[in-house]
Each structure stands twice: as structure tokens, then as C-alpha cells.
Design a protein that fits this description.
The complex is a heterodimer of chains A (about 250) and B (about 425).
Chain A lengths: L2 E3 L4 H14 L5 E3 L12 E3 L4 H14 L2 H12 L5 H14 L11 H23 L3 E2 L5 E5 L10 H7 L5 E5 L4 E5 L4 E4 L21 H14 L8 H7 L14
Parallel strand pairs in A: 1-2, 1-3, 5-6
Antiparallel strand pairs in A: 4-5, 6-7, 7-8
Helix pairs in contact in A: 1-2, 1-4, 3-5, 4-5
Chain B lengths: L4 H14 L30 E2 L5 E2 L1 E5 L26 H13 L5 E5 L6 H16 L7 E5 L6 H10 L2 E3 L7 H7 L5 H24 L11 E7 L6 H12 L4 E8 L18 H16 L4 H4 L13 H8 L6 E2 L5 H4 L7 H11 L6 H6 L4 H4 L3 E2 L13 H8 L21
Helix pairs in contact in B: 2-3, 3-4, 4-6, 7-8
Chain lengths: ~250, ~425
Amino acid sequence: MLVFRYDKSFEGLLTCLFDAYSRRAFPERLISMDEPPPLFAGEIHGVVAERAKAERVWAGLERRLTRPVCGMLMHVWLSELPQSDELLMRYMRKAFDAQASIATMFTDPDVLEVKKIAAKVSKERERLTQFARFQKAADGLFFAPVSPVYNALPLTLDYFTSRFADQQWLIYDLKRRYGYYYDLATAAEVTLDDDERLLSGKLNDALMAQDEKLFQTMWREYTVSLTIRERLNPALQRQHMPRRFWKYMPEKNL
Amino acid sequence: MEMNEHVQDKLKILAESAKYDVSCTSSGTTRKNKPGTMGSAEGWGVCHSFTEDGRCISLLKIMLTNNCIYDCAYCINRRTNDIRRATLSVEELVELTIEFYRRNYIEGLFLSSGVINSPDYTMERMLRVVKELRTTMRYNGYIHMKSIPGASRELVEQAGLYADRLSVNIEIPTEQNLRMLAPEKNHQSIFKPMYYIQQGILGSSDERQRFRHAPRFAPAGQSTQMIVGATNESDSDILRLSSALYLRPGMKRVYYSGYIPVNAYDTRLPALKQAPLVRENRLYQADWLMRFYGFKAGEIVDEAFPNLDLDIDPKLAWALRHPEAFPVDINRADHSLILRVPGIGVKSAALIIASRRHGRVTSSALARMGVVMKKARYFITCGELATLTVNELHPDQVRLALAPKKGRRDGPDTRQLSIPFTD
């Protein structure tokens, strides 16, 4: 069994495909730099990520697949699911080898699986846009803590920059410990050195804007007042708004 | 302006008063963010929260005031009800909207109001809120505004320039019943503003054909709502009215609100043990069939079956009444026929059509695509081993296999009201 070892970057993955074509040998497994090789590994090839190779592969994909489909591959990558890189490898190989576009060949398990995982990541993106909540800090910055199951935060930037164009904000993924800071012009990726104090997901009272607590309380009371008691259905509520999001939402966790 | 406990209290009262309006969508508009302004209503609106009853909160749904000169039997805010009354000032409501929006609590504002003094007086106050938001605050988020029954044409036309969607609620499907429950209203006072909105939309799209920058009028169209189960209309009456409404330009959604006995003391209204939630759900399914599946109202309900079947969904019910339309050949049939198969939705139908170009679609592929095979298998063939379809079996047998089991339920069915009306 042929195994490729690479740095688990997207660029690295595209380089893997490039190497496979130039070696005319396709790996059955992809492993990270520090992962022990599988028991029956025959040959292990180390792949060095190279921008030029990656760009050639991506350009080739863009010629064969439409933009939304290339976007789906990006979504699958951001899912960070185990073996999603191997799925992408198989998909890209099929895309290159097939005569016509494979994008709609949903009878193929890999094609369908890519669509399904992309849909899940896209759903997580949507949920971030639904349930992320800003807290206003005393200096006017709006801070939103998130911890999505998939790494969907980069996909939300168009939403947040167009909605909140005239306010400074910071959205921080507490699980992956990075975020985006928007300075009224562009949103840039940031990693905070002292993010320990943010890990609770709540600004402490000293950092909070004066009105912030009041607006949080008003919002929570508003959602309570809006409930129709004759139709209580907490299971439906949880289905639409999974519990894992509640910890940063003032209406659920003040 | 200072936010305080006083406003906090008013917010609670006015949310209570607004909660029975079911509309919550915030899609269908194209209002983009422009540099230097706040907010954007581009693309699909999202739900930002869900209440414990499982309903979506997308917009800040609120009344400007819950004082009202009318005495409609079905309404919590009728003037003879002894409830707490409150009125928000224009400034208070504008600030609430902006501050909630900035925290990503909402997609925008859904503004409604009780009628004070006169319909026009009320509309003018509401207009001041939306004008203030759009002009002074340079707010681009979504605005859904109620048009007050009986409001003048000029005010409706102004509202359409600031709001993304306008709506007038029909509430009671037939005029006769409306007059019984709301003697101060009639269908004309409702259909007139609806007509003004429609004319505004048509006028604006006509203008925009000639001048690219002519202002849009209520770009997300209009919607309306009917209360279900407060009066004796059949599902057929309701769905025929809906389908007539959907034929009108700009009519985007008809909502159905299962009647909740807010004024149980009023003997003109039926005594219900619980809101007719199953019926409401079936009406929405039927509504979906009309809008996305190419069904006509007359196919879903007719003289022989004026009410929807509560045990099975309307699409399955149609299929069982029309076994001659099946089996549908998954690999050959038109898109419109595939859409008629119970267990196949809009998404899986699209996947099937796309995949057919690459080769044969098998039943295992169907299951992977999300087709509910438990239902669909009675109505399809896909060139594999013959299975028993609705034609080999009898529709009654298929129904028995797919309807929920009734075994242990005690007593009579309480989901549908028995209608206590006399003529």
C-alpha cells in the first residue's frame, strides 16, 4: 500500500495530487508528519508542499469544475473531518480523469459524499451567522465568541463585513484560537497572545459598554415574551438551535 | 437617548401583543450595504433565534402600540380586553432596532400596530419609524411593515419606498365570518391596501424598465396571514383563496396561523382544547405543493375531499387517490412527474435529474440522495427487480403501511375541532 506523508495544509494536499500524477502512482492513505504509518504501509512518500504545483492543480480544477463546485471542495477541506483529505484526493483525481464534468454524477459515492460534507459545513457557516452574538465593549468594539464544529468561520466574512460595515468587531473561534478583526475597512485574521481571558466567552463587567447588560437583558426578555405558551415545543427549538450554541447567546445564557 | 427599565417594560408588553403574527421571513430583497451605512439585507435572511415554541425569530417583531380602537373577537389586543397597554416612541423603537441589529440579534424590524385614532394616523406614526431608520440612521437592514386596513393610498405608497415587505392580514378567509368576528372591518378594507401595494410594485418595476435607478417599491413583495380554525371555513376554502392570492403579482407568502383561544370568553369563537397544529402543518404542506411542486389547489382538495387528511401528508394523499399516475420511471420521467412522487422532494428531484445524464439511477443511489424510500418505493420503478407498487397493492394497503398507527390513542381525535357553529 502506497502512503503519502504531508503537512496537512491545503497547498500540501494539492501538491500530493501533483506528485501522484507525476509518479503515476496514487496513494491509498494520506498521513500527517507525525502520524505513525499504517501497519501494512509499503512505500511512504514524503510530499513537500509547493505553491507552484498547488496552483497548477487548482487552475486545472477550475477549468474542469464550476466555481460553486470548487467552493464545495474548499468547504470539505474546512470540515477538518478525518480522511476528508483522502476523499478530496479521490474526487480531484476523478475530475481530472473523466471525459466530462463529474460535478453532477451523484451516483458516484465520492461525488455525493463531497456534496454532503460541503452541505454540512455550509450549514455550520449559516449557524454562525445566525447565532453569533456581539457584546459591546467599553471602547466600542463588538466582540463575538464562537466555537463551531467545522472550521467555518472564514466562510462567514462576507456576511459579517457587509452587515456590520460601520462598526469595529472581533469574531474569535475559541476552539481553534484564532479570529477575524474588522477595522472598518477590512477583516484580517488575528491570533491573540492573551486569549485566555476571552475563553469564558463573556466580556467581564469592567470591559463591557455601559448599556450592554441592559440590551442583553432586554433581548432575553423579548424572546421570552414572544413565546406562545400554548405551543411549547422545546425539542423543535433544540432542533433548529442546537444547544452547543447557547453558551454565547444572551437569550439562553445571560 | 437613554434606555431604561421603562422601555424594557414596554418592550415586553408590546412583544406579547405582537407574537401571534406568524410571518417571520426576511428574504427576497436586494438591499445591499453601501459604504458608510449600516446593515445589509442582501441574500437570504436567516433566523437568529428560536423561542421555546420552536418558532423562528428573524425580525424584531413588535407593535408600536397595543392600544386599539377595534374590537375583533380573535385578537388579544381588542379594545375591550383588560390587558396592559403601552406605546413606544419613535426614538425608542429606532434605537432598539439599531442596537439589536448591531449585536446580530435580528435581521431587521417587523413593525405592526394597533389602530389609534384612525388608520391613517396610525400609518403615519409607523412611517416615521421606518423613515427615520432609512434616512437619519442610514440603515439597510430588512424592514417588514404592516399596512393598516383602511389606510389611504398615499401612505401605502410612501411605506413601499422604505419597507422591504408590506403586508395586510386577511385573518378570516370569508367576508361573512369576518363580519361576524370583526364587525368594524370588511374585506374591502383589507383588499384595498393589498391592491395599492400590488399597484406600487407593478408601477415600480415598470419604471425600472425605463430608468435603472428608479426607486424600488417593497422589493420583497407582500404577504398575508389567515387564522385557521377560528371559523368554519374548510381547507378547500382556504387553499382556493391562497392560490388566487398567489396569482397576484408580488404576493410572496400566505401564512396560516392555527387559532389559539386568546379570548376564550367570546362565545362567537369555538372552544378548543388545543390549537389545531396538525391542520396548520398540513396547510403549509399544501401551500408548498402549490408553490414548489406544481400542484393546483383543486388537486389537493376538492368537493369530495374538502379537508386535508390529518394522518398523511397532502402529497401522499393525492398519490393514493391517483394510483393511475404511478409507477413513475425514475430514469425516464419528466421532472414534473418525479416531483409528484411521495418521498421525493425538490432537492432530491434535482439530484436525480442531474445524475441521469451520467448513467442509470439505482434504488440504492436514490436512498443515498435522500429519497425517503419507505414512501417512494410504492410509486416508482428504476429498472431493477420488480417491487410491489401502489397498483399491485391497493391504495388502502399503502395507506395502512404509511399512516401513523392509531392503536393506543384514547378517546376521539381532538386535533381537528368539531365545529359548533350553526347557520
